[in-house]
Amino acid sequence: MAVSPVIGGKAVKGPTAKMMGELGLEVSAAEVARHYREFLDGCVIDDADAGIAKALSVPTAATKTLMLSLADREHVARTVLALADRLSDSSD
């Protein structure tokens, strides 16, 4: 499972966008999913990127992913766990 560090084509913080650019990668949630698809069962993306969810190469959930508070972090964690549950249920 992954939570995309990119929201609307911009890195949330840190050197993500710079590193992706240096690698010749598009700075997008879709590119994060494509780049790590061999390792991912699912990816959580921000609502700002929800329009691309069907084009991603892994199962996806969209929600508000910018974590500014404890409540935000708990919400993202619950979304990740719900996606993992959904994927686990579908593999039975």
Characteristic key phrases:
alpha/beta; 39% helix; 3-stranded parallel beta sheet; Rossmann fold; 92 residues; two-stranded antiparallel sheet
Brief overview:
By secondary structure, the chain is α/β, with parallel strands linked by helices.
Describe this structure in words.
By secondary structure, this protein is of the alpha/beta class. The chain has helices at 16-22, 29-36, 70-90; strands spanning 2-3, 6-7, 10-11, 43-46, 60-63. The chain has one domain: CofD-like domains (Rossmann fold), CATH 3.40.50.10680. It has three helices and five strands; from the N terminus they run βββααββα. A hairpin with a 2-residue loop joins strand 2 (6-7) and strand 3. The radius of gyration is 13 Å and the shape is globular. The model has no long low-confidence stretch (mean pLDDT 91).
